[in-house]
Task: structure prediction
Amino acid sequence: MGNGSATTRRSSRQWPIRVALLTLALGAGGVIASTYDPSDPMGSITSAVENPLRSVSALFSGGGNAKGAGQRAPQAAPVRVATAGSRDVPVVVRTIGTVLANSIVNIKSQIDGPLLTANFKEGQMVRKGDLLFQIDPAPFEATVRQSEAQMARDQAQLESAQADAERAVMLADRGIVSAQQRDQLVANSKALQATVEADKAALDRARLNLGYTKIYSPIDGKTSAYIVYPGNQVRANDQAGLITITEIQPVKIAFNLPQANLPRLQDRMREDGLIASVTVRNDVEASLATGEARANDSGIPVKVDFISNVVDARTGTIELRATFANPDLRFVPGELIDVGVRLETLNKTVFVPREAVNVGQSGPYVFVVSQDNKAEMRPVEVTYEDSFIATLSSGVKEGERVVIDGQLRLTPGIQVSILGETGEKQPAENPAERNVQSSNSPQAAPATAQRGNESVARGG
Result:
């Protein structure tokens, strides 16, 4: 009986303490919620925890917010903006191309024999007609002399047979020699004449084989490593050959573009104006690493001289080839390079940075910042885009500000805070203008090339 009364008295003394602690916790939570700053969340929580009594006082006095709890003004969303511009924008499709040799020749021997010498170094540039290899000529020189002697012997026999045939014809006319003897001598003369002709052919063949002991370059090009080294026995028309010569001046650049671009490619081809801008990938990577820009920001112009007559059904692309003189041997067969082809030019079109365009359920849209710094959501029609810019045919006017960073915080009509702005208006660089100038630079090629044919025109 006494224990029950003591327990009741302790419980009755503890409940005011519990109510006070609960009130303190609710007050601190309310102040944290009312004074929470999205730009400094940890600072808001730390301030409320370090000063709990002030937090409770602020909750009941309304000091946590100048407008009172539950009436706090919405925070402005921080964003970054760019100004929409207008200029002539080239419609460029980019892809990865491959350098091809203009021709490749596998040098083989046409005779059997020991290889005596090689008159060039591995990897050396050779000209058409340069002596490459020397095969031992001694056996073939002997064959030539033998063929000459054989022909001389048969020629002497032919002369004697011809004289006998002429006398037999004359004596047969006088009745001294029978017609049979005459015919036999004439036939013998003709047979020896045919033998002499065969000797001439054998001599020509022997001389030809002797000429094959010296192997000359049939084209201008660069030699490969030795396949057969001097001192080895070579065989006629051996499958491996002796060496390979690759013609790299000029070279061909092969690349594929989507078949949707074929009509415009053919139009430019007929106008004799289809030019590809090629960039060596190693040059781009080196310039990015050193921070140095190349002298020619638009790449190397190469004229396209071939469009395939067949579309690849597996990829839906068509092959194009361009010929380049390659004077400094910059391009090597098998090398991958970045290729850009200008299909047309959009005159005085509105453009924005590519990151300003978002895609929703109803299509692409952008957030435009009004004069009073409120976000306005506008649907747009994108006509062309690359790695840097997007051109718009509707939705945005030149000079309007579009949001390029912070779109996830935005809803139509929300107040925005433009990052980087101060009380005094400062002249700022226009990212959209910077991007459109960079769209033709070699630095643009690697990012685009990784996506293959991603940069395509829309709606046209």
The longest strand covers residues 85-107.
